[in-house]
Amino acid sequence: MYCSISFFCKVHDFHSHFKTIFMWSASSGLGMNCSWREYENKCYFFSTDTKKSWAAARHDCVQEGGDLVSITSAGEDYLKDLELPTWIGLSDLLVENQYAWSDGVSAVLYTNWNDKEPNNAGGAEHCVAMTHGPLVTGKWNDDACSKNHSFVCYRKKCQ
Ligand SMILES: [Ca+2]
Ligand SMILES: [Ca+2]
C-alpha cells in the first residue's frame, strides 16, 4: 500500500530538531501504512511493510514525485525507524564500481560501506541497501537488485 500526499497530515514535534509528519486516511483506516516524515526540510517515505526490488521501489518513489533516498552526510537519525535491509538510491547499474545516486543530482561524496563492501558478490550486486554492520546499524552493502527489500524515498517537500 502506497500513501498519497493527499491524505490528512498531523505534525508532531517529539524533540527539538526532528519533526514527524504522520499521514493517514480517516475514512479507510490506512494510517498505519503511511509514513512520510519531514527532516531538515526534506520529506521521507519509509516502506515499513512493503518490500520490492530496487527498480520497483524506485518506480514507486518517482510516482510520488520523489526518488529513492540519497544520503550525502552522516545524518542518520531516521535509521531507528527502518526495517533493514532497506534500499537507498545508490547503484552501479550503469558502470561497474562507479556508484551514482538515482536522483541524478547528488554527488557521491559520503559513503558508509560495511566491512568488505562493496564486494559485487557473484559479479551481480549493483544496488545498495542499508544493513547491519558489526557495531552500527545503517552500514551499506551492494546487493542483488532483484531482491525484495524495504526502501526509503525522499522528495523536497511534504506538501
Ligand atoms: Ca556492482
Ligand atoms: Ca555485497
Automatic annotation (TrEMBL):
Residues 39-154 form the C-type lectin domain. Keywords: Disulfide bond. InterPro entries: C-type_lectin-like (IPR001304), C-type_lectin-like/link_sf (IPR016186), C-type_lectin/snaclec_domain (IPR050111), C-type_lectin_CS (IPR018378), CTDL_fold (IPR016187). SMART domains: CLECT. It comes from the Eukaryota. The keyword Acyltransferase does not apply. The keyword Secreted does not apply. PANTHER family: MANNOSE, PHOSPHOLIPASE, LECTIN RECEPTOR RELATED. This is C-type lectin domain-containing protein. The lineage of its organism: Eukaryota, Metazoa, Chordata, Craniata, Vertebrata.
